[in-house]
Known about the structure:
The protein is of the alpha+beta class. The protein has 11 helices and 14 strands.
Amino acid sequence: MKPSAFTYHAPKTLAEALDLAATLDNARVLAGGQSLMPMMNYRVVQPEHLIDLGRISELAFVEDTVEGLKVGAMTTQRTIERSGVVQKRCPLLIDALFHVGHQQTRNRGTIGGSICHLDPSAELPVTACALDAVLTAASKTGRREIPFADFPAGYLTSSLQPDEILVQIDFGKWPARAGAAFEEYAVRPADFAIVSVAARVALNEDGIITEARLAAGGIAPVPTRLISIEAMLKDERASAALIESAAAAAAALPAAGDDMNSADYRRELAGHLTQRALSKALQRVRP
């Protein structure tokens, strides 16, 4: 199929894009287009106006600041994947991106587009959930910061207002003595994940876990922060037995099934992937 008729807009500045978002009815913002264009072709969505952000260079950047890593919403996934700054300051992002589609997909796909699309199978929203990223949305009236926990409004739905555009994602400072890993299961490489788990752990010099971040995708309509399991891990000595307990807790979490993959299967995967992600993250802890 082909999309229904629409008017195409190609602003060159963020100010122009915000003017359009504030004045046009039934408009959608186009980032990389890896999800939106197929949805338009199948007429799942039928916008009357398409606002293409591809020419707005001010929305594509990677910055290492005293507050942590800041990434522009229009930064391509391939740019992030190849960034030495990201590898140093937020290696979990790199690990997650290795699971995203094919290189051609990552050449066009953007971090902001993926996070706004909020597919529960997508790797970047799960990573943003685990790291409690802060999202900056802009409109003609100003900007507001949205903790990722407040960003999802439902399946494939964000809390952005119709006149708002995501402009920046803040990942905060990477803690000392921390390791991270992203694990997922898909039927074939580059397929949508059935379940995924993002993990980051930090240890003190005595091997005690001082911080644990865990999030799962594919067990609920939105990425899920595993706060109860994080609490199990914090202030405990890292050990194989502790990881097994965390995995068992993940396998007992509520999960939503579908015609392809049952809730029980998704829970089982969540347990296995939690064990793998935590084990790998602990192996990667460096002084």
